Amino acid sequence: MRNYFCKNCRTVIRNAVKPSVFNCPKGGQHQWSDLGEVGATPYQCKKCGILVESKPQPSPYDCPESGTHQWSKLS
Q1: What does 6-34 look like in DSSP terms, one character per residue?
Q2: Does the pTM exceed 0.85?
Q3: Is 51 helix (H, G, I), strand (E, B) or coil?
Q4: What is the DSSP letter of 55?
Q5: From CA 45, how far away is CA 52, in angstroms rounded?
Q6: Mean pLDDT for each 10-residue chunk of the chain (75 residues)?
Q7: What is the pLDDT of residue 5?
Q8: 4-37 burial, b if ≥16 CB within 10 A, otherwise e?
Q9: Residue 41 in contact with residue 53, Cβ under 8 Å?
Q10: In the Cβ-directed half-sphere of 50, how many Cα atoms lie within 13 Å?
Q11: What pLDDT is stored for residue 66 in this prediction?
Q12: Handedness of CA 10, 15, 16, 20 (dihedral sign)
């Protein structure tokens, strides 16, 4: 399982494959980013505030608040 994040609607989904791009609630299509493998360690981005549970530190790419996420480990 992997964490996917849509930078349009800020939805995080855990899924084995990249989710469908259709029907983004913000209009148009989702813009999914693969943040990495699902795990037990919580990380939160200091810029956009999203929270994911990941095995390694999540990918920094595609933060909606200026390009790259700044992850803080919460445990």
Answers
A1: ETTT--EEEESSPPP-S--TTSS---EEE
A2: yes
A3: strand
A4: S
A5: 9
A6: 97 97 96 97 97 97 94 93
A7: 98
A8: bbbbeeebeeeeeeeeeeeebeeeeebebbebbe
A9: yes
A10: 27
A11: 86
A12: negative
Residue with the two structure tokens 């595609």:
62
Question: What pLDDT is attached to residue 72?
Answer: 98
Place of tokens 């530190």: 57
Q: What does the block give as tokens for 11?
A: 């939805």
Task: Report pLDDT for 75.
Answer: 78
**pLDDT value for 48:** 96
Residue 63 CA to residue 61 CA, distance in Å, equals 6
CA angle (49, 54, 58) in 5-degree steps? 60
**41 vs 8: CA distance, rounded Å:** 25
What six digits make up the tokens of 20?
């469908």
